[in-house]
Design brief:
The complex is a heterodimer of chains A (about 110) and B (about 230). With about 110 residues, chain A is mostly helical. Helices cover about 75% and strands about 0% of the residues of chain A. The relative contact order of chain A is 0.06. Chain B folds into two domains: about 180 residues, no CATH class; about 50 residues, no CATH class. The chains are: A mainly alpha (about 110), B mainly alpha (about 230). The interface between A and B is large, with 78 and 109 residues.
Chain lengths: ~110, ~230
């Protein structure tokens, strides 16, 4: 293992574990019936949604090579498939991968 | 120490047609392939998923390495993108805490908090008695974490056979998977509003600050949704 990559992995995992660890520390004093718990529940869902939307709308890496409109169409079709298949997670994810691969290969 | 009945019940939650295992696996196959392409050894790739186990964080790490960021910049970038884990932990752990359970279980098992395991637990906790929830959670976490590590391995090995178009296809799986899980979680006004506002404000704040947009957007969206939801619940 080269020293550089080793430290990068270590720094990445520490930066990630920090939020989880502080979350447990804070949880010790928070009751599940409290207002603050309900507020954090909203924050958890909203930050997750913000993250996902950012990945889709302002992607970095490989996804940025695909046109914005195509990404949007694939997402809408996948959500449609998710409902048609009674909220199955497998079909829409596999469908999206296949359709984007085909799109990227032939268009 | 750990109630095996509840542990295995949690572990088994990744089976079945509605399972996140395939989507989670495909996302980490993409990570395995990506890490190989940027020059990681197989040990380093597995070590990375083992220790981090948070997909957006691993992507940020890979991008930072490509552009040659310093360690402190990598720390800040990863912390910002993974800071969502803080509200996720705070909105999960109080549901699992019980005075008969030792604290180390909570501090160790918080490593398993990631979108898929978190959403599975949120969907199922009410069916598990409170003192057994942490063991059920450790079961879910061990299962999803194992899938992630194993898939990183598969992705690393398979990367020679995956062309650029296939990698683009794999890259969309994670956002699609997260999006569907979030849409499926929209069961109350409060949660639906949090998700919709978050999805609008997150990208909107990108124009002010690309680094802080997830935190700012999420904070503002979640707070607005909370107040509207509280008024509505009265």
């Amino acid at each position: 293992m080269t020293g550089n990559i080793f430290f990068v992995i270590l720094v990445t995992s520490l930066a990630t574990f920090l939020s989880r660890f502080l979350g447990v520390v804070s949880s010790e004093n928070i009751k599940e019936t409290s207002k603050i718990f309900r507020w954090f529940n909203c924050l958890a869902y909203s930050t997750l949604a913000a993250l996902i939307a950012r990945i889709v709308i302002f992607p970095s890496g490989l996804l940025s090579e695909i046109d914005y409109l195509v990404r949007l169409i694939v997402i809408i079709l996948s959500i449609g498939l998710f409902f048609i298949t009674k909220k199955n997670l497998v079909y829409p994810t596999i469908f999206s991968a296949i359709i984007l691969t085909l799109f990227s290969s032939y268009l | 120490m750990i109630d095996s009945k509840y542990f295995f019940k949690g572990f088994a939650s990744i089976k079945g047609v509605g399972s996140p295992a395939i989507a989670l696996g495909a996302s980490f196959i993409a990570i395995g392939a990506l890490l190989k392409n940027i020059g990681f050894t197989i040990q380093e790739s597995l070590f990375s998923t083992f220790l981090t186990y948070a997909l957006p964080g691993s992507l940020v790490m890979a991008e930072s390495l490509i552009i040659g960021s310093s360690l402190i910049n990598i720390f800040i970038a990863v912390w910002l993108v993974n800071a969502r884990l803080y509200p996720m932990t705070v909105s999960l752990m109080p549901l699992l805490m019980h005075q008969t359970q030792p604290k180390w279980k909570y501090y160790l098992s918080c490593h398993f908090i990631a979108v898929s395991s978190w959403l599975i637990m949120k969907d199922n906790y009410e069916q598990i008695k409170k003192e057994a929830r942490i063991d059920f959670w450790i079961g879910i976490g061990t299962a999803t974490w194992s899938v992630a590590i194993f898939s990183t391995f598969i992705g690393y090995i398979a990367s020679d056979f995956l062309n650029r178009d296939m990698l683009i296809g794999l890259a969309i799986i994670n956002p699609i998977y997260f999006t569907c899980m979030m849409v499926g979680a929209m069961k109350t006004i409060k949660i639906s509003l949090s998700i919709i506002l978050g999805a609008i404000l997150g990208p909107a704040f990108y124009f002010i600050s690309p680094e802080w947009c997830i935190l700012f957007g999420g904070f503002v969206a979640g707070t607005i949704a909370f107040f509207i939801g509280e008024i509505n619940d009265r």
